[in-house]
Predict the structure.
Amino acid sequence: MYAQSVPQSRSLTMTVADYVALMKPRIISLLLITAYCAMVVAAGHLPSLGLTVLTMVGLTLSSGGAHAVNMWYDRDIDGLMHRTKMRPVVQGRVPAVHSLIFGIFLQIVSFAGLGLLVNWATALCSLGGFLFYVLVYTIWLKRRTPQNIVIGGAAGAFPPLVGWAAVTGTVGWAAILMFLIIFLWTPPHFWALALYKQDDYRNAGIPMMPVVRGEKVTKTQSMIYTWLLLAVSVALYFTGAVSWVYLVIAVGLGVGFIAYHVFLLREREPETRWAKKTFKFSLVYMMVIFFGMILALPHH
């Protein structure tokens, strides 16, 4: 009896863990940070705890739902990549159709909850991110074009719109610039990863930029995006939503990101040390620039 009961109790814990894994919680944490920072900037102070919790839960469900649908659709190529071959659907721990149903269910709950408890602008922004990630990125672009992450990256840029809409009921210029910061940050971030994981993408037949166009083209285009990112991040200051403190942070981070790309461009194949460093710096960049917005709220 005892020998039979242990696997059952263990399987429940493991099943819950697998369904949580379908939602990609590590990625969600970064999305929540950008949404919360947008809420603070929109309000000019810390928003109420109730509104914050409702918005964060709604966004978690929506993002998690998109990721679960992505794991259903990508189960064939995920099994070919070292980075993704241990995912629950690939391993057969969660049936593929369950991942699809789970993802759609999470999005329905998110849309209804945000619409009824926060406002419908927030619900629509969150739904927009879900649809963009699932339909435009996962199903349409990912396997077809090396520009997949350029256009598809917009999906990860929706959270500031969600956060801003939660506080104001609309989408302002500052929120659009926050959207663009993430949109322009995404190609250098993912291409740095692709530079040192390109064998993975090649094996799976995913047309990531380094695989299709080569390292030099990837690094050059990545550098262009970092310059555009610097310009857009500085533009946020001129909306009046943040103080000069943010401007200093944005310029410092932007110049730093460009400097990393200078070293990245000088790195010769098959060296990937600077690709890894650039990828790690891109994560630091995103965290610091958004927290910088909170530090730099203008004094009224």
